[in-house]
Amino acid sequence: MSSAPSRSNADPVAAALDTAAVRVLDAVRDLGVSNPVVLIDGQSGAGKTSLAKQLVARWPLTGRVQLVALDSIYPGWDGLADGVEAARTLILVPHGRGVLGIWQRWDWDASAPAEAHAVDPSLPLIVEGSGLITGATARLGDVRVWLESPLVSRKRRALERDGEIYRPHWEQWAEQEERHLVRDDPRRHATHMFAIP
Q1: What pTM does this model have?
Q2: Are 140 and 132 contacting, i.e. CB atoms less than 8 angstroms apart?
């Protein structure tokens, strides 16, 4: 399946994400491996989930690609760093070692761990979420994507997506993202950076 854009798009966000998808898929193809790992980071509302879904839909390699969203792993509204560490130790490290990874979904309604999921090391893997690209995770990802987007646009998209559930937690989450930017400098570890309007 071609990774080329299917059509011209007047929506600047969709067009930027489409361009990003094409470039990431080209990079995946250029790796020449059967089970590459793609990491997607960016602050809330930057377009990580949308890009990840495009990559899955247009995946250029034969077979299935696995997608893990950190929103399913963060242990609550104060859990950005803990969720990233869980992804590193339970998903990325095992995948890199060629062994099965097992992670537990966080049930946001019950505020408790839920069912377990497996990650097959023989299959390609996309992991997306805020805080994901750090010095420790960078060496475990073949293609590392940072999405940059203005605050006003990000907040509008995030609140349209998650509504009133997210609104009271926006600042709390944003503070954790800011700490990640200062502490981990994800832009420095990224192999690809894209501006999303």
Answers
A1: 0.94
A2: no
